[in-house]
Every structure is written in structure tokens, then in C-alpha cells.
């Protein structure tokens, strides 16, 4: 006989998995098959594919534009961080030593 679990239990279990708990250990503690936990994680986890797809071409194009803008923003943020890290990585100049030269 198969056990049935409610969605709240499944979401809480997936949250525990994503917090770093070992899958096999959590499965043993909860009395759930490890394969079942993997299936829940694939369906409900952070990296799960969204179930809803755009219904029309216009909605799909709007989503593509939104995602392209997000990519552009992320690239800009990455460049800013790279430049900031470059500035911080330069050794500080010793003003006293430069004036003696």
C-alpha cells in the first residue's frame, strides 16, 4: 500500500533538502523512499521548471524581453563588481614613500 503525503509536507521536506540536509538521512528519518524525495525536489525545488508556459506568442515575446533586460542588468552588475574588486585588489599607495623620491 502506497502512502499519500500532502503538498505542505512535500514542500517542507524539499525545503529541508535544499537547506543542506543529506537526502538519504532525511529519507530514513521521515520513512520516505529516497527516490520519492528526489522526485519531490525536481518538481518542487528552487530549480524546478515552471509549470505555466506563456499562452500566446505576445506573452512569450514579453517574457523574452523581460529576461533579456534581466540579463543586461546582471551583466552590468557583474562588470561593476569586477571593477570594484579590481580597485580593491590594487595595493594602497604609500604617499610618504612617494614624496621622498
User: What string gives the helices and strands in order?
Assistant: HHHHH
The domain tally reads 2
Cα-to-Cα separation, first versus last residue: 86 Å
Residue-averaged pLDDT: 83
Task: Report the sheet with the most strands, covering strand number, pairing sense and barrel closure.
Answer: none
- Could you tell me the radius of gyration in angstroms? 25 Å
SS-based class: mainly alpha
Q: Uncertain regions: pLDDT < 50 for 5+ in a row?
A: none
Helix content: 55-70%
Broad shape: flat
According to DSSP, the number of beta strands is: 0
Proportion of β residues?
Answer: under 5%
* Count of helical regions: 5
Would you kindly provide a brief summary of this structure?
The chain contains five helices and no strands. It is an all-alpha fold and 101 residues long.
What does this protein look like?
There is one protein chain. This protein has 101 residues and is mainly alpha-helical. It folds into 2 domains: 7-44; 57-90. The protein is 69% helix and 0% strand. It is built from 5 helices and no strands. Helix 1 (7-18) packs across helix 3. The longest helix has 33 residues, at 57-89.
Amino acid at each position: 500500500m502506497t502512502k499519500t503525503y500532502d503538498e505542505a509536507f512535500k514542500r517542507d521536506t524539499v525545503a529541508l533538502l535544499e537547506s543542506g540536509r543529506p537526502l538519504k538521512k532525511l529519507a530514513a528519518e521521515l520513512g520516505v523512499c529516497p527516490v520519492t524525495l528526489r522526485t519531490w525536489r525536481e518538481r518542487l525545488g528552487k530549480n524546478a521548471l515552471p509549470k505555466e508556459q506563456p499562452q500566446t506568442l505576445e506573452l512569450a515575446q514579453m517574457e523574452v524581453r523581460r529576461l533579456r533586460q534581466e540579463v543586461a542588468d546582471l551583466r552590468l552588475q557583474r562588470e561593476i563588481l569586477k571593477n570594484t574588486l579590481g580597485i580593491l585588489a590594487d595595493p594602497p599607495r604609500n604617499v610618504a614613500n612617494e614624496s621622498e623620491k
